[in-house]
Amino acid sequence: MTHDLVPPPEAGGVLTIDLAALRANYQELARRVAPAVCAGVVKGDGYGIGLVQAATALWQAGARSFFVALLSEARSLREVLPEAEIFVLNGLFAGTEPTYRDLALRPVLGSVPEIERWRDFCASIGQALPAALHVDTGMNRLGVSPTEAINIAEGRDELGFPLVLVMSHLACADEPDHPLTAQQLEDFRAVAALFPDVRASLSNSAGAVSDPALHFDLVRPGIALYGGRPRADIAPLRPVVRLDLRIVQIRNVHEGQTVGYGGAHTALRPSRIAILSAGYADGIPRLAGASDLRPGAEAVVGGHRCPLIGRISMDLLAVDITDVPEFAVEAGGFATLLGEGLGLDDLARHSHTIDYEILTSLGRRYLRRWT
To answer: N or C: which end of the chain has fewer CB within 10 A?
Structure first.
Protein backbone atom coordinates (compact mmCIF):
# COMPACT_ATOMS: atom_id res chain seq x y z
CA MET A 1 0.00 0.00 0.00
CA THR A 2 1.35 3.44 -0.89
CA HIS A 3 0.40 6.90 0.26
CA ASP A 4 0.94 9.01 -2.84
CA LEU A 5 1.40 12.46 -1.35
CA VAL A 6 4.48 12.34 -3.57
CA PRO A 7 4.32 10.52 -6.92
CA PRO A 8 7.00 7.79 -7.04
CA PRO A 9 9.08 9.33 -9.85
CA GLU A 10 9.20 12.64 -7.98
CA ALA A 11 10.13 11.31 -4.56
CA GLY A 12 13.43 12.29 -3.02
CA GLY A 13 13.11 9.39 -0.62
CA VAL A 14 11.00 6.33 0.12
CA LEU A 15 9.88 5.59 3.68
CA THR A 16 8.82 1.95 3.93
CA ILE A 17 6.78 0.98 7.00
CA ASP A 18 6.57 -2.70 7.89
CA LEU A 19 3.18 -3.21 9.55
CA ALA A 20 3.84 -6.94 9.98
CA ALA A 21 6.87 -6.03 12.12
CA LEU A 22 4.70 -3.65 14.15
CA ARG A 23 2.17 -6.40 14.80
CA ALA A 24 4.93 -8.85 15.73
CA ASN A 25 6.46 -6.34 18.15
CA TYR A 26 3.11 -5.82 19.85
CA GLN A 27 2.56 -9.55 20.22
CA GLU A 28 6.07 -10.03 21.63
CA LEU A 29 5.56 -7.26 24.19
CA ALA A 30 2.12 -8.61 25.09
CA ARG A 31 3.73 -12.00 25.73
CA ARG A 32 6.45 -10.47 27.90
CA VAL A 33 4.12 -8.43 30.12
CA ALA A 34 1.38 -11.04 30.58
CA PRO A 35 -0.74 -11.32 32.66
CA ALA A 36 -0.79 -7.52 32.42
CA VAL A 37 -2.61 -6.15 29.38
CA CYS A 38 -0.58 -4.47 26.63
CA ALA A 39 -2.03 -1.25 25.24
CA GLY A 40 -0.93 0.64 22.14
CA VAL A 41 0.40 4.20 22.25
CA VAL A 42 -0.26 5.88 18.91
CA LYS A 43 0.25 9.55 19.72
CA GLY A 44 2.41 11.72 17.48
CA ASP A 45 0.73 10.35 14.32
CA GLY A 46 1.54 6.81 15.39
CA TYR A 47 5.11 7.82 16.27
CA GLY A 48 5.42 9.24 12.78
CA ILE A 49 4.38 6.19 10.76
CA GLY A 50 0.69 7.14 10.43
CA LEU A 51 -1.88 6.98 13.21
CA VAL A 52 -4.55 5.17 11.19
CA GLN A 53 -2.17 2.57 9.78
CA ALA A 54 -0.43 1.97 13.12
CA ALA A 55 -3.64 1.68 15.11
CA THR A 56 -5.26 -0.63 12.59
CA ALA A 57 -2.24 -2.94 12.64
CA LEU A 58 -2.14 -2.94 16.45
CA TRP A 59 -5.85 -3.75 16.63
CA GLN A 60 -5.26 -6.66 14.27
CA ALA A 61 -2.48 -7.81 16.59
CA GLY A 62 -4.81 -7.81 19.59
CA ALA A 63 -4.58 -4.34 21.14
CA ARG A 64 -7.88 -3.04 22.51
CA SER A 65 -6.76 -0.06 24.61
CA PHE A 66 -5.03 2.91 22.99
CA PHE A 67 -3.42 6.14 24.18
CA VAL A 68 -3.16 9.41 22.26
CA ALA A 69 -2.01 12.85 23.35
CA LEU A 70 -4.61 15.08 21.72
CA LEU A 71 -8.35 15.06 21.28
CA SER A 72 -7.88 15.56 17.53
CA GLU A 73 -5.87 12.32 17.44
CA ALA A 74 -8.62 10.54 19.36
CA ARG A 75 -11.22 11.74 16.86
CA SER A 76 -9.23 10.25 13.96
CA LEU A 77 -8.65 7.05 15.89
CA ARG A 78 -12.33 6.60 16.71
CA GLU A 79 -13.23 6.79 13.02
CA VAL A 80 -11.21 3.65 12.28
CA LEU A 81 -11.58 1.78 15.58
CA PRO A 82 -15.19 2.17 16.74
CA GLU A 83 -14.85 -0.41 19.52
CA ALA A 84 -11.45 0.58 20.96
CA GLU A 85 -10.92 1.98 24.44
CA ILE A 86 -9.25 5.35 23.81
CA PHE A 87 -7.52 7.45 26.47
CA VAL A 88 -6.50 11.08 25.82
CA LEU A 89 -3.40 12.04 27.81
CA ASN A 90 -2.90 15.77 27.45
CA GLY A 91 -5.59 17.19 29.68
CA LEU A 92 -9.29 18.04 29.59
CA PHE A 93 -9.81 21.49 28.06
CA ALA A 94 -12.93 23.48 28.85
CA GLY A 95 -15.59 23.08 26.18
CA THR A 96 -14.35 19.72 24.90
CA GLU A 97 -16.42 17.60 27.28
CA PRO A 98 -19.26 16.92 24.77
CA THR A 99 -16.75 15.52 22.28
CA TYR A 100 -15.53 12.99 24.84
CA ARG A 101 -19.13 11.97 25.46
CA ASP A 102 -20.12 11.79 21.80
CA LEU A 103 -17.08 9.74 20.76
CA ALA A 104 -16.96 7.58 23.92
CA LEU A 105 -13.44 8.77 24.77
CA ARG A 106 -11.81 8.64 28.17
CA PRO A 107 -10.04 11.76 29.42
CA VAL A 108 -6.95 11.31 31.56
CA LEU A 109 -7.55 13.82 34.37
CA GLY A 110 -4.35 15.24 35.78
CA SER A 111 -5.41 18.16 37.95
CA VAL A 112 -8.12 18.99 40.47
CA PRO A 113 -9.73 21.59 38.14
CA GLU A 114 -9.98 18.96 35.39
CA ILE A 115 -11.61 16.52 37.81
CA GLU A 116 -14.10 19.18 38.92
CA ARG A 117 -14.86 20.09 35.30
CA TRP A 118 -15.56 16.46 34.37
CA ARG A 119 -17.67 15.96 37.51
CA ASP A 120 -19.74 19.06 36.73
CA PHE A 121 -20.23 18.00 33.12
CA CYS A 122 -21.38 14.53 34.13
CA ALA A 123 -23.84 16.07 36.60
CA SER A 124 -25.15 18.49 33.98
CA ILE A 125 -26.03 15.72 31.51
CA GLY A 126 -27.12 13.17 34.10
CA GLN A 127 -24.52 10.61 33.01
CA ALA A 128 -21.57 9.22 34.95
CA LEU A 129 -18.94 8.94 32.21
CA PRO A 130 -15.68 7.06 32.82
CA ALA A 131 -12.29 8.74 33.11
CA ALA A 132 -8.70 7.98 34.11
CA LEU A 133 -6.71 9.62 36.88
CA HIS A 134 -3.07 10.63 36.36
CA VAL A 135 -1.00 10.83 39.54
CA ASP A 136 2.47 12.41 39.48
CA THR A 137 5.10 10.22 41.16
CA GLY A 138 8.22 12.11 40.14
CA MET A 139 8.00 13.30 36.55
CA ASN A 140 6.62 16.71 37.56
CA ARG A 141 4.89 17.10 34.24
CA LEU A 142 1.24 16.08 34.47
CA GLY A 143 -0.82 14.56 37.27
CA VAL A 144 -2.31 15.28 40.68
CA SER A 145 -0.02 15.00 43.68
CA PRO A 146 -0.08 11.88 45.89
CA THR A 147 -1.72 13.97 48.60
CA GLU A 148 -4.45 15.05 46.18
CA ALA A 149 -4.86 11.39 45.19
CA ILE A 150 -5.53 10.52 48.83
CA ASN A 151 -8.23 13.19 49.01
CA ILE A 152 -9.78 11.92 45.76
CA ALA A 153 -9.82 8.35 47.08
CA GLU A 154 -11.44 9.43 50.32
CA GLY A 155 -14.12 11.32 48.37
CA ARG A 156 -14.86 8.59 45.79
CA ASP A 157 -18.54 8.48 46.82
CA GLU A 158 -18.93 12.13 45.82
CA LEU A 159 -16.74 11.99 42.73
CA GLY A 160 -19.71 11.69 40.41
CA PHE A 161 -18.12 9.47 37.75
CA PRO A 162 -16.29 6.13 37.62
CA LEU A 163 -12.52 5.87 37.48
CA VAL A 164 -11.46 3.10 35.10
CA LEU A 165 -7.69 3.65 35.28
CA VAL A 166 -5.19 5.20 37.66
CA MET A 167 -1.82 5.85 36.05
CA SER A 168 1.56 7.49 36.43
CA HIS A 169 4.59 7.83 34.16
CA LEU A 170 8.15 6.59 34.67
CA ALA A 171 10.81 9.26 34.28
CA CYS A 172 14.04 7.23 34.19
CA ALA A 173 13.16 3.61 33.42
CA ASP A 174 15.39 3.74 30.31
CA GLU A 175 18.40 4.02 32.66
CA PRO A 176 18.97 0.68 34.40
CA ASP A 177 18.91 0.82 38.20
CA HIS A 178 18.13 4.54 38.34
CA PRO A 179 17.03 5.24 41.94
CA LEU A 180 14.05 7.35 40.84
CA THR A 181 12.43 4.27 39.26
CA ALA A 182 12.43 2.41 42.58
CA GLN A 183 11.02 5.47 44.31
CA GLN A 184 8.28 5.89 41.71
CA LEU A 185 7.37 2.22 42.03
CA GLU A 186 7.05 2.54 45.80
CA ASP A 187 4.96 5.70 45.53
CA PHE A 188 2.71 4.29 42.81
CA ARG A 189 2.07 1.11 44.79
CA ALA A 190 0.74 3.31 47.58
CA VAL A 191 -1.44 5.24 45.12
CA ALA A 192 -2.79 2.09 43.46
CA ALA A 193 -3.70 0.69 46.86
CA LEU A 194 -6.03 3.66 47.35
CA PHE A 195 -8.05 2.46 44.34
CA PRO A 196 -8.07 -1.35 44.66
CA ASP A 197 -10.98 -1.76 42.25
CA VAL A 198 -9.39 0.36 39.48
CA ARG A 199 -6.86 -0.82 36.88
CA ALA A 200 -3.35 0.54 37.48
CA SER A 201 -0.78 1.52 34.84
CA LEU A 202 2.80 2.72 35.31
CA SER A 203 5.01 1.23 32.59
CA ASN A 204 6.09 2.78 29.30
CA SER A 205 8.30 0.86 26.84
CA ALA A 206 11.29 0.82 29.17
CA GLY A 207 9.15 -0.35 32.06
CA ALA A 208 7.56 -3.03 29.92
CA VAL A 209 10.93 -4.70 29.30
CA SER A 210 12.17 -4.21 32.86
CA ASP A 211 11.12 -5.46 36.29
CA PRO A 212 7.70 -7.18 36.10
CA ALA A 213 6.82 -5.36 39.33
CA LEU A 214 6.43 -2.25 37.17
CA HIS A 215 3.74 -3.79 34.98
CA PHE A 216 0.63 -3.63 37.21
CA ASP A 217 -2.57 -4.19 35.18
CA LEU A 218 -1.84 -2.31 31.97
CA VAL A 219 1.40 -1.34 30.21
CA ARG A 220 1.68 1.48 27.68
CA PRO A 221 4.56 0.78 25.27
CA GLY A 222 5.38 3.30 22.59
CA ILE A 223 8.85 3.38 21.02
CA ALA A 224 9.44 -0.35 21.52
CA LEU A 225 6.45 -1.12 19.30
CA TYR A 226 7.98 0.90 16.47
CA GLY A 227 11.41 -0.72 16.54
CA GLY A 228 13.19 1.75 18.80
CA ARG A 229 15.48 0.79 21.65
CA PRO A 230 13.61 1.06 24.98
CA ARG A 231 16.79 0.81 27.08
CA ALA A 232 20.45 1.10 26.19
CA ASP A 233 21.15 -2.41 27.47
CA ILE A 234 18.20 -4.09 25.71
CA ALA A 235 18.14 -4.79 21.98
CA PRO A 236 15.27 -3.32 20.00
CA LEU A 237 12.55 -5.53 18.56
CA ARG A 238 11.98 -5.83 14.81
CA PRO A 239 12.67 -2.65 12.78
CA VAL A 240 9.49 -1.06 11.49
CA VAL A 241 10.82 1.69 9.23
CA ARG A 242 13.26 1.77 6.33
CA LEU A 243 14.41 4.98 4.65
CA ASP A 244 15.92 5.03 1.17
CA LEU A 245 17.11 8.34 -0.28
CA ARG A 246 17.50 9.23 -3.94
CA ILE A 247 21.02 9.81 -5.26
CA VAL A 248 20.90 13.12 -7.11
CA GLN A 249 24.50 13.30 -8.32
CA ILE A 250 27.84 11.57 -8.03
CA ARG A 251 30.75 13.99 -7.84
CA ASN A 252 34.53 13.80 -7.79
CA VAL A 253 36.31 15.83 -5.11
CA HIS A 254 40.03 16.55 -5.15
CA GLU A 255 42.21 16.03 -2.10
CA GLY A 256 42.09 19.18 0.03
CA GLN A 257 38.73 20.39 -1.23
CA THR A 258 35.89 20.94 1.20
CA VAL A 259 32.32 19.65 1.09
CA GLY A 260 29.18 21.47 2.14
CA TYR A 261 28.34 24.60 4.10
CA GLY A 262 31.10 26.13 6.15
CA GLY A 263 33.75 23.96 4.53
CA ALA A 264 33.41 21.73 7.59
CA HIS A 265 34.71 18.56 5.90
CA THR A 266 37.99 18.42 4.00
CA ALA A 267 38.74 15.54 1.64
CA LEU A 268 41.93 13.77 2.72
CA ARG A 269 42.18 11.88 -0.58
CA PRO A 270 40.70 12.06 -4.06
CA SER A 271 37.09 11.13 -3.35
CA ARG A 272 33.77 10.25 -4.92
CA ILE A 273 30.72 11.56 -3.15
CA ALA A 274 27.01 10.88 -3.61
CA ILE A 275 24.59 13.75 -3.03
CA LEU A 276 21.32 12.46 -1.55
CA SER A 277 17.94 14.15 -1.84
CA ALA A 278 17.04 14.75 1.83
CA GLY A 279 18.01 17.10 4.60
CA TYR A 280 16.82 18.63 7.82
CA ALA A 281 13.55 19.65 6.13
CA ASP A 282 12.90 15.91 5.86
CA GLY A 283 13.72 15.10 9.47
CA ILE A 284 17.41 14.26 9.04
CA PRO A 285 19.07 15.99 12.01
CA ARG A 286 21.70 18.56 11.14
CA LEU A 287 23.99 16.95 13.71
CA ALA A 288 23.98 13.71 11.70
CA GLY A 289 26.52 15.34 9.41
CA ALA A 290 30.29 15.29 9.87
CA SER A 291 33.23 17.66 10.04
CA ASP A 292 36.98 17.41 10.20
CA LEU A 293 36.58 17.18 13.98
CA ARG A 294 33.99 14.42 14.33
CA PRO A 295 32.40 11.61 12.29
CA GLY A 296 28.76 11.61 11.29
CA ALA A 297 26.12 8.99 10.61
CA GLU A 298 26.33 6.35 7.89
CA ALA A 299 24.36 5.23 4.86
CA VAL A 300 24.43 1.99 2.91
CA VAL A 301 25.30 2.54 -0.76
CA GLY A 302 25.80 -0.34 -3.16
CA GLY A 303 25.94 -2.75 -0.25
CA HIS A 304 28.69 -0.79 1.55
CA ARG A 305 28.47 1.31 4.69
CA CYS A 306 29.59 4.81 3.84
CA PRO A 307 30.07 7.87 6.07
CA LEU A 308 28.02 11.03 5.75
CA ILE A 309 30.37 13.98 5.23
CA GLY A 310 29.92 17.70 5.64
CA ARG A 311 26.92 19.49 7.07
CA ILE A 312 23.35 18.39 6.46
CA SER A 313 21.58 20.96 4.29
CA MET A 314 17.86 21.66 4.19
CA ASP A 315 17.31 19.38 1.20
CA LEU A 316 20.60 17.55 0.55
CA LEU A 317 23.35 15.60 2.24
CA ALA A 318 26.64 14.10 1.08
CA VAL A 319 28.04 10.59 1.45
CA ASP A 320 31.61 9.46 0.78
CA ILE A 321 31.35 6.54 -1.69
CA THR A 322 35.03 6.39 -2.66
CA ASP A 323 35.28 2.76 -1.57
CA VAL A 324 32.12 1.63 -3.39
CA PRO A 325 32.73 0.04 -6.83
CA GLU A 326 31.61 2.41 -9.56
CA PHE A 327 29.31 -0.19 -11.10
CA ALA A 328 27.40 -0.52 -7.79
CA VAL A 329 26.05 3.02 -7.61
CA GLU A 330 24.53 5.49 -10.04
CA ALA A 331 22.64 8.76 -10.02
CA GLY A 332 18.91 8.17 -9.75
CA GLY A 333 19.42 5.12 -7.55
CA PHE A 334 18.98 4.97 -3.81
CA ALA A 335 21.06 4.91 -0.66
CA THR A 336 19.73 3.54 2.63
CA LEU A 337 19.81 5.68 5.76
CA LEU A 338 17.59 3.42 7.89
CA GLY A 339 17.68 -0.29 7.15
CA GLU A 340 20.31 -2.77 5.99
CA GLY A 341 21.54 -2.98 9.57
CA LEU A 342 21.31 0.74 10.30
CA GLY A 343 18.74 1.29 13.03
CA LEU A 344 16.97 4.27 14.55
CA ASP A 345 19.40 4.20 17.45
CA ASP A 346 22.39 4.39 15.09
CA LEU A 347 21.15 7.58 13.45
CA ALA A 348 20.05 8.96 16.81
CA ARG A 349 23.42 8.32 18.43
CA HIS A 350 25.34 10.13 15.69
CA SER A 351 22.79 12.96 15.83
CA HIS A 352 23.10 13.39 19.62
CA THR A 353 19.40 12.79 20.07
CA ILE A 354 17.02 9.89 20.77
CA ASP A 355 15.29 7.46 18.44
CA TYR A 356 11.90 8.94 19.42
CA GLU A 357 12.89 12.24 17.82
CA ILE A 358 14.26 10.56 14.68
CA LEU A 359 11.12 8.51 14.15
CA THR A 360 8.55 11.24 14.82
CA SER A 361 10.41 13.80 12.69
CA LEU A 362 10.59 11.85 9.44
CA GLY A 363 9.18 14.27 6.89
CA ARG A 364 6.15 14.43 4.65
CA ARG A 365 8.11 14.73 1.39
CA TYR A 366 8.90 11.02 1.28
CA LEU A 367 6.87 8.53 -0.67
CA ARG A 368 5.39 6.39 2.11
CA ARG A 369 4.81 2.70 1.58
CA TRP A 370 3.06 0.52 4.14
CA THR A 371 3.84 -3.15 3.62
So the answer is: N
For residue 251, list its beta bridge partners. Answer: 273
The answer to whether the pTM exceeds 0.85 is yes
Tell me the per-residue pLDDT of 231-272, one tens digit each, with 9 for 90 and over: 888 889 999 999 999 999 999 999 999 999 999 999 999 999
pLDDT range class, residue 7, cuts 50, 70, 90: low
**Active site residue ranges:** 43, 261
Side by side, the strands of the sheet bearing 106-109 are 40-41, 65-68, 85-88, 106-109, 131-134, 163-167, 199-201
Q: Where are the alpha helices (DSSP H) in 128-282?
A: 146-154, 179-194, 205-208
Q: Does residue 226 lie within any of the structural domains?
A: no
Peptide bond into 307 cis (omega under 30): no
Half-sphere exposure of 88 (CA within 13 A, CB side): 26
User: How many domains does one find in the chain?
Assistant: 2
Q: What is the mean pLDDT of residues 68-75?
A: 98
Range of the domain at 285: 241-370
